[in-house]
Structures are given as C-alpha cells and as structure tokens.
Amino acid sequence: MQSWIESFQRSIDFIEAHLNDALDIDSIAGIAALSPFYYQRIFGVLCGMTVGEYVRARRMTLAAQELCGTGKRVIDVALEYGYDSPDSFAKAFQRFHGISPSKAREAGAPLRSFAPLHIKISLEGGKMLDYRIVEKAPFTIMGVKRPFNSDTSYQEIPLFWKEWTADMKGLKGMFGVCMDSNGKDFDYWIADVYLPWLDIPDGIETAVIPGGLWAQFKCKGPLPGSLQSVNTQIWSEWLPTLKGYSLVGNYSLEVYGPPTENPEDYESYIWIPLKKEESK
C-alpha cells in the first residue's frame, strides 16, 4: 500500500511544484502511474474535490499571499497563476476569497487559505466489500452518450439520467458506462447490451467493450447511495491493498439489476477492468 500512496503523493507534490505552470492531467497522472481517467476518479474520492478545484484553490491561496506580501500589480499576479486577463482573475479571486484582489491589499482583509494536501490512508476494517474477479469476452453496448467534464460530472450525470427517463428511446438502462475521451473529459453512456438481430433505434450508438478481467463489486441498497458508498471503498480501501493485479483501460461500468419492491434489496454492480501482473 505504501508505494501506491507514495506515488499518488508525488503527483500532488508535482502539482505544488508547478502551480505557476500550465499543468496538464496527463503529466500529473503519469507521476502516479495511472491513466488520467482513473487518476481523476481516485483523486475525487481521496481528496474530496476534483483536480481542477484543488489547483484553483491552491493558486488562489498563493495569489492572495503575493498580493498582500509584495508590491506586484494585479495583472502580473493574474498572469503568474495562469489567467489571461485581470477580469477573469478578479472573478475567480472573488469567488474564492469573497473580496476583490484590490481589497486583499488592505490591512485586515479577510482571506481564505487552502493548504497543500497530504494523502494518508488508515485501514481499520469497516464494512464488508463483496467482489469477485472474472474474465469476460468482448461485448457491444448500444445507447445514448454525452460528454462530461470531470469537474462537473457528479452534478450533471444525474440530470442526464433524469432527462433520459423522460424519453427512454427504447433502452432499459442496464449500464452506465464511463469512457475516457481526452483525459479531462469523458463520455458517459446510458446503455444496454447490443443484440445484432435487433434493429438499432434512431439516435442510438454502439461501442465495443473489450474482453478481459473485471473486478465486479456488489452494491446493495437504494441508488445512488449504495453505488457511491462502494465507489468510495474501492478507491480508498480496495485499490491501495490490491496485489497481483493493476488497473487497465480507460473505462468502467455501472451495472443495474431489475427493480425490487424494497429499495434496500436492490442490487447493482461496479465493474473495473484489470490486468494480472507478471510474477517477479
């Protein structure tokens, strides 16, 4: 576990060392030996915020310190922390600190500070996490998809499901599939298994899910709470202690079971693709 946590901490240290630079998620995730797709999901669970939110909070903290402690012009501080104009910097500064950059120079100005993160995981038992590792052949899904940004996906994906429920387009909604698009953005699918002998409804697309090993985690109870709880356990408890396997691919699946009369009995699953590590 320690080496995994250390590599993740090194990625945060890399962010800290390059807050004045144009950071990209590929470089950050590479420090932790993870794909951008998985890095952002793990970061959100471990740190309670997105990578973008963390970077903005740290930049705003340091920018305020510079405005208070130096004679630098606002435009120079704005450019130093990656803002193209004083206006965009002022808006971000106002959202974070609640005051304008010029007000920050005044004696006694109320400012917020966000300290660098240090990752520590303490495993003390807790809830049982039911999972199994299985091998599956490739299969094809059909569904509707929409691009999402990692910074806002938690709020926007439920709205996508709500919108789909109003116009189901012939789908049952067996899967929720995340597929990496370009590192920071990803496509989210509401999908079913594609059956080649059936016609594809208008507006529906298809995609192939590669075959291989999957870790399948059972989630029992009402949605979305049961999925969110297990998702947190996967990244904060299961992954740090994983031996003999490593994450693979830039996709993951939510699998939904049939409705039940009692929401407490409802079963869903999270599928994570894996590869078996070679013995040393």
Task: Write the SSE topology.
Elements (H helix, E strand, L loop, with lengths): L1 H16 L7 H7 L4 H12 L3 H19 L4 H7 L5 H12 L3 H4 L26 E6 L2 E11 L3 H14 L8 E6 L4 E9 L11 E5 L2 E9 L4 H14 L6 E3 L3 E6 L10 E10 L4
Antiparallel strand pairs: 1-6, 2-4, 2-5, 3-4, 3-8, 6-9, 7-9, 8-9
Report helical residue fraction.
25-40%
Q: Figure out the total of helices.
A: 9
Q: What string gives the helices and strands in order? A: HHHHHHHEEHEEEEHEEE
What structural class do you assign from the helix and strand content? alpha+beta
Q: Compute the number of strand runs.
A: 9
Count of the separate structural domains: 2
Structural notes for this entry:
The structure is a single chain. This protein folds into two domains: 2-104, Arc Repressor Mutant, subunit A; 131-276, Multidrug-efflux Transporter 1 Regulator Bmrr, Chain A. The protein has nine helices and nine strands. By secondary structure, it is α+β, with helices and mostly antiparallel strands. The relative contact order is 0.13.
